[in-house]
């Protein structure tokens, strides 16, 4: 039997080929990374859902009205498909602040911007009036944008940055994770073309783990090393050291106007998963753990508000304590008293699990409930089509379905 082929010998996890291939995947694959048509894809429905965008825009609205801001500038890093931007602009319209918002979509590659244009994600809005595109690498932000933005948003982006898993040995010394990568001899050889075409290539690699003594070499790992401490270990007795996200956070603070805020939503730690990262298609998604970011922020006398539900770990960071206090009640209302995103997700799962035609009442109830939160997305038009079908209005059902298909930019729902 052919032996596995060694692809890379033991290397720090965050500098390994696995990580490098994963991060080049987004840049080369563009929006296809988010589309079901590519086979395995990066899930994005919940992060880009209308209720998620709406809750964020409600916070912006409060600042716009309280501070009488004429043009509130929102910068989204890693904007991917642009669907969050579309939903945020629709929410701004619903909330009567469309004229007061400019949404800057930014990503590591402008390839996504060309694709957003060609599939028409933002066709209901005007470039240079409602939105702008900016090619920006979160790890190297030019200082020309200092104090330019009122809100900076990152939706499942920190998890894509290099993160080094650490743990404390029994003797109390820090250890880091190294991995060794092997390829199954039956697999095609690993190259960029395969990575793009074969969307499960990374998950078929064989990975061996090794924990070795850690002392930070240099650069960012050295810079934030003093933030690490034993009390920060998670339920798996690990610390995921997000040195790149820590550096990015400092740069983001610099981009913010004094009355601005940072909003980060990301994948929370999963108590049932002992793993350190997940693989979606050929991208690595690190579980994200926020205590180090919050420690960095509070050490600098800034304020943080962190809240978690089933859908997201959400982190808000403010330069200005007064602004934090002014928004606190609204944040609690939007994210603690309820979570429209969790409800959205549960309704989607509940509807998927209904199989009997005798459950019409249940379907009707769930679709109507869903439409209380979302009247804009393609999913909501599919719900409307379903409701019309239930009452025999086939023509109206067809109109709603056609609209849904038109809004299904990534082909994930049709
Ligand atoms: C998991 S996707 C999330 C996309 C989108 N925000 C969403 O929720 O669907 C991660 C995004 O971050 C972008 N990204 C990865 N590394 C980046 C970096 N260093 N600078 C800017 N964007 C980056 C990728 O291109 C990709 O669009």
The total of beta strands comes to: 14
Strand content: 15-25%
Approximate shape: globular
What would CATH call the architecture of the largest domain? 3-Layer(aba) Sandwich
Oligomer: single chain
- Estimated radius of gyration: 22 Å
Query: On the 0-100 scale, what is the average pLDDT?
Result: 93
Sketch the major β-sheet.
Answer: 7 strands, mixed
Bound molecules: S-adenosylmethionine
How far is it from the N-terminal to the C-terminal residue, by CA?
43 Å
The name of the CATH topology of the largest domain is Rossmann fold
What structural class is derived from the secondary structure elements? Answer: alpha/beta
Low-pLDDT windows of residues: none
* Helical residue percent band: 25-40%
The domain count comes to 2
Count of DSSP-assigned helices: 13
Strand order of the biggest β-sheet: 4-3-2-5-10-14-13
SSE order, one letter for each helix or strand: EHHEHEHEEEEHEHEHEEEHEEHHHHH
Under CATH at level 1, the class of the largest domain stands as Alpha Beta
What does this structure look like?
This protein is α/β, with parallel strands linked by helices and 414 residues long. The chain folds into two domains: 1-337, Rossmann fold; 354-407, no CATH class. The chain is 38% helix and 22% strand. The chain is built from 13 helices and 14 strands. It has helices at residues 17-29, 50-67, 83-94, 111-119, 192-197, 219-223, 243-255, 291-299, 321-337, 340-353, 360-373, 378-390, 394-407; strands at residues 5-12, 72-77, 101-107, 131-135, 149-155, 164-168, 174-183, 206-213, 238-241, 256-266, 277-280, 283-286, 303-308, 313-318. Strands 4-3-2-5-10-14-13 form a seven-stranded mixed sheet, with helices on both faces. It starts with a strand and ends in a 7-residue tail after the last helix. The model has no long low-confidence stretch (mean pLDDT 93). The structure holds S-adenosylmethionine (SAM). S-adenosylmethionine binds next to helix 1.
């Amino acid at each position: 039997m052919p032996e596995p082929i060694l692809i890379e010998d033991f290397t720090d996890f965050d500098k390994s080929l696995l990580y490098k291939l994963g991060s080049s995947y987004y840049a080369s694959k563009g929006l296809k990374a988010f589309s079901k048509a590519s086979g395995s894809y990066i899930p994005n429905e919940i992060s880009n859902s209308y209720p998620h965008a709406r809750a964020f825009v409600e916070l912006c609205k409060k600042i716009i009205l309280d501070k009488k801001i004429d043009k509130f500038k929102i910068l989204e890093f890693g904007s991917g498909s642009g669907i969050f931007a579309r939903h945020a602009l629709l929410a701004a319209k619903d909330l009567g602040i469309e004229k007061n918002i400019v949404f800057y979509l930014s990503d590591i590659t402008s390839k996504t911007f060309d694709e957003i244009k060609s599939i028409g994600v933002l066709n209901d809005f005007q470039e240079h009036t409602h939105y702008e595109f900016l090619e920006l690498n979160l790890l190297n932000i030019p200082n020309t944008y200092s104090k330019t933005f009122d809100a900076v948003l990152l939706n499942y982006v920190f998890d894509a940055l290099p993160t080094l898993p650490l743990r404390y040995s029994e003797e109390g010394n820090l250890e880091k994770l190294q991995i060794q990568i092997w390829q199954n001899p039956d697999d095609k050889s690993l190259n960029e073309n395969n990575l793009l075409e074969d969307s499960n290539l990374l998950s078929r690699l064989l990975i061996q783990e090794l924990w070795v003594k850690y002392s930070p070499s240099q650069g960012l790992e050295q810079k934030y090393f003093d933030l690490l401490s034993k009390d920060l270990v998670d339920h798996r007795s690990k610390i995921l050291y997000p040195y790149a996200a820590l550096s990015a956070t400092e740069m983001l603070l610099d981009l913010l106007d004094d009355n601005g805020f940072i909003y980060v939503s990301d994948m929370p730690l999963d108590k049932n998963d002992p793993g350190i990262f997940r693989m979606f298609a050929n991208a690595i998604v690190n579980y994200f753990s926020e205590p180090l970011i919050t420690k960095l922020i509070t050490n600098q006398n800034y304020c943080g508000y962190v809240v978690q539900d089933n859908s997201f770990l959400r982190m808000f960071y403010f330069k200005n304590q007064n602004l934090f206090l002014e928004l606190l009640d609204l944040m609690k209302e939007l994210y603690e008293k309820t979570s429209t995103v969790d409800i959205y997700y549960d309704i989607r799962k509940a509807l998927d699990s209904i199989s009997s035609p005798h459950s019409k009442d249940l379907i009707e109830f769930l679709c109507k409930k869903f439409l209380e939160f979302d009247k804009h997305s393609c999913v909501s038009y599919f719900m409307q089509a379903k409701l019309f079908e239930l009452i025999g209005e086939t023509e109206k059902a067809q109109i709603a379905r056609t609209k849904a298909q038109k809004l299904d930019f990534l082909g994930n729902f049709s």
